[in-house]
Amino acid sequence: MTSAAPEPPPKTPPSWQHCGQDATSADPVGCRGIHVPGHTACLAHLADTDRDSYLNDLSPGADIDHRGTPFTEDLLHRLLTALHDPTTSQAHIGTARFDWATFTGNARFDEVTFTSDARFDWATFTGDAWFRRATFTSDARFNGATFISNARFDRARFETTSRLGPLVCGEKVVLDGAVFDQPVTVEMAAREVSCARTRWASTATLHLRYAEVDLRDAVLEYPVLVAARPDPFPSLYSRDPLSEAELSGREPGVRLMSVGGVDAAHLALHTIDLSMCRFAGAIHLDQLRVDGWCTFATTPTDQGRRFPWRWSRRNTVSEEHHWRVRTARRPARGHGWTTPPRDAPELPPAAVAPTRTPSTSHQLRWHTPHNPCSVFGVKALTQVVTLSVGRKRPSPRRGSQTREPDQ
Asked: How far apart are CA 127 and CA 105, in angstroms?
């Protein structure tokens, strides 16, 4: 594997022979695109006849090096078309060097097969980046890459990738249906990270920032850790951390939205906001590991104006919030509970009842007190406390009761 390319400081030429087109007093380096072999310009600034000749000489599986080159949608399309395998109608690339390249508009690498290292270190994507059904047979390097919009890796296959990122995405990273065959560390700062139906065929660690994470129907064959990273990711080539300008103004915490359909026996969570997470449909929740400072939804804290009680303070799950709002006989009895989003299914009590809230021992367990006026009309979802030292329950306020009323 090739060594990592160093980060070119501002106004300092890169380590490769570069184009220099459009150099000014403010930017004496100009275009940082690497020379096309046999020429003194990058692919973007090459004369039309020379560019056509270079593209015509390419064949499927060829190694390409376009570090620092500015790509338009049309130029990228022409490059990938020249690398198409006529037997499969898909592009095949050997070693791909796109370090520090800039992709203006949408960058489409759909169904491309990279038979050697694919290097996008410090690349910038100004539009959507599409790597749907792409195959990475070796390293897929996106160290320091910036995606202004969405980064889509739907059904991509990472055969030997050991590290994906760190990268910054201003919108959504989509890994739906992707397959990771080997142990991998994923490092991302993004608004959303979708891992619906993602298959982790080996161990995985996801270090995330800012993201709302969806793990619906993900397949975890080995332990997978999802953890919130408190500090910005360090730059691999400089002392400064990665810029997160695309995410400015947002809280850097990580919120898990769903584990429905997941076998949670291999899932571990560290310092994740679970207040909006949907647990219904997951199995082996009693084996889910919840460490660090994870937060859950709670019962309403304010006392209703028309009723002489207040809710007992305890952790709960989003499904109970949705159930109480939907089944409240009077609007006032749904006061303080979170209204379900439009896409939240209306689950029957039998489907919601197996959901469990966390105990202080960081395990999700059953608790079924004998209370005919409890959650779902049969069983109450409440916190199981398994501390070696007991805690005194706070006294209720005068004139109030700490019971859970009948719906």
From this structure: 5
Q: Which residues pair with 64 in a beta bridge?
A: 96
Identify the pLDDT of residue 315.
74
pLDDT attached to residue 356:
45
**Cβ–Cβ contacts within 10 Å for residue 81, how many?**
11
Q: Are 152 and 134 in contact (CB under 8 A)?
A: no
- Give the separation between CA 400 and CA 402, rounded to whole angstroms: 7
Ranges 104-113, 154-163, 172-181, 276-285: which has the least confidence: 276-285
The length of the chain, given as a count of residues: 407
Report CA Rg, the chain: 26
* Residue type at 311 in one-letter notation: W
The residue ranking higher by pLDDT, 212 or 6, is 212
Tokens (6 digits) for 379: 């069983």
Q: What is d(CA 123, CA 399) in angstroms, rounded to the nearest whole number?
A: 63
Alpha carbon distance 327, 352 (integer Å): 13
Residues in a beta bridge with 70: 102
End-to-end Cα distance, the chain: 64
C-alpha 321/C-alpha 297 separation (Å) is 8
Q: CA–CA separation, 253 vs 235, rounded Å?
A: 20
Burial class of residue 402, CB neighbours in 10 A (0-12, 13-18, 19+)? middle
Q: Other CB atoms closer than 10 Å to residue 14's CB: what's the count?
A: 19
9-31 pLDDT, tens digit each? 456 888 899 998 888 888 888 89
